[in-house]
User: Which sequence fits this backbone?
């Protein structure tokens, strides 16, 4: 199973010294790079590589600690700069054992093409290689690309990385919540366990018998599941959040017209749909110009 080195490139409208500083200074680098929670430089000896340690929090109180060293910087005649790195960790739980890579800063008119390429050896033998190939390598490549877009927005628009990541992860939390809501309400009370109140509500709105009501209810459930899946994968999510903002008041009104006694129930259609309506507004606002890994070039 042959793997390719991870490559990410993005043009950044910035001065060379500014980009160099936010990517080479540890206290600034750790702010935008998702791969590291903290970076600490060690005291540098003259004519020796710059040594550093890093930590990456992986959740549940666990973290990966590793070492690294800047094995050389090169300044090209065209004004470009290259920084080469050697990194690794001795922790057994880490998928990465040891690797090498570089960062390259190449001026191109008013922008700098900021790129990286790195590769690494993995732990856990064949199982580790399979896990790396299908899961970890795509994930860390995505994290690298997302981080590059964050530093680009930091330098070009002035928005701090912390603020960008809050918007990004809150946006996706709301998306996953809506995906679950549409999936659950389409699947459970409408298809797998067609609830009697779903049928009664529909029959109160339109005069139909039980069998057509069951069919229509299941079709509505299928439509809800489909919408949830589209919401999860469709890139222009603001359009779908806008559609939800129009749909939830209608759904609340239809449920209440179908059976006004629902207003007496806990977590009734009115309060439930108002909550989803407000969350749709928040999602619509948050998804405006969030960072994205898609802005980066991923192949040489």
Assistant:
């Amino acid at each position: 199973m042959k793997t390719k080195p991870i490559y990410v490139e993005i043009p950044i409208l910035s001065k060379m010294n500014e980009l160099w500083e936010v990517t080479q200074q540890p206290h600034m680098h750790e702010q935008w790079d998702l791969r590291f929670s903290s970076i600490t430089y060690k005291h540098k000896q003259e004519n020796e590589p710059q040594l550093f340690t890093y930590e990456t929090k992986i959740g549940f109180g666990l973290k990966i600690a590793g070492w690294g060293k800047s094995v050389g910087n090169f300044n090209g005649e065209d004004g470009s700069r290259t920084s080469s790195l050697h990194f690794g960790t001795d922790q057994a739980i880490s998928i990465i054992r040891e690797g090498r890579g570089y960062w390259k800063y190449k001026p191109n008119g008013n922008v700098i093409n900021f790129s990286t390429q790195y590769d690494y050896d993995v732990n856990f033998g064949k199982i580790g290689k399979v896990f790396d190939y299908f899961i970890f390598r795509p994930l860390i490549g995505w994290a690298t690309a997302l981080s590059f877009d964050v530093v680009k927005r930091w330098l070009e628009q002035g928005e701090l990385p912390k603020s960008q990541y809050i918007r990004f992860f809150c946006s996706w939390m709301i998306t996953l919540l809506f995906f679950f809501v549409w999936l659950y309400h389409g699947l459970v009370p409408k298809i797998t366990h067609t609830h009697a109140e779903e049928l009664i509500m529909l029959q109160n709105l339109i005069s139909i018998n039980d069998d057509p009501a069951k069919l229509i209810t299941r079709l509505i459930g299928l439509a809800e599941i489909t919408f949830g899946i589209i919401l999860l994968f469709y890139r222009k999510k603001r359009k779908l959040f806008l559609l939800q903002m129009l749909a939830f008041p209608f759904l609340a009104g239809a449920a209440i017209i179908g059976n006004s006694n629902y207003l007496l129930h806990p977590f009734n259609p009115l309060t439930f749909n108002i909550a989803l309506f407000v969350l749709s507004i928040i999602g619509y606002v948050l998804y405006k110009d969030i960072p994205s890994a898609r802005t980066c070039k991923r192949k040489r």
